[in-house]
Amino acid sequence: MTEQQPSDWQRRFQDMKVGFDRAKTVASNPQPLKEINVNFPSLPNINIESLQNTYQKFLTWFNEIPASGKLLAIVACALFSMTIVKSVFQLITSLITLSTFGVILYLIYRFSILPKGND
């Protein structure tokens, strides 16, 4: 049984050496990666041309409406933008308040509720 162990280790060492030699040849001669086409049928195909076409349609529509309609559209967009900004600020404020409350609760737990060790 003691005679089999050195030959087993020698065989494993030779296998590892062959594996390293293969890895060296693969690393020295890298194969180009194959291009894989991935299609996401549920996602719309968005490209620059479609965005430009949509923008041109919007400009055409915007230029056709009367001046009072343009003013109303600008005011509506401004109000919508301000609502979004207000919501983001409220979210940030809530997160800051929640983290502050968590730190206060941790400090109360650490210094008053946690049993004190023998000092």
Give structural notes.
This protein has 119 residues and is mainly α. It is built from three helices and no strands. It has helices at residues 4-28, 48-64, 67-113. The longest helix is centred in the last third of the chain and has 47 residues, at 67-113. The radius of gyration is 34 Å and the shape is flat. The relative contact order is 0.03.
Helix content: over 70%
Biggest sheet, open or closed, and with what strands and sense? Answer: none
Instruction: Give the count of helical stretches.
Output: 3
- Amino- and carboxy-terminal Cα gap: 59 Å
Please sum up the structure shown:
The chain is an all-alpha fold and 119 residues long. It is built from three helices and no strands.
What structural keywords apply?
119 residues; mainly alpha; 3 helices
Helix-strand blueprint:
Blueprint (H helix, E strand, L loop, with lengths): L3 H25 L19 H17 L2 H47 L6
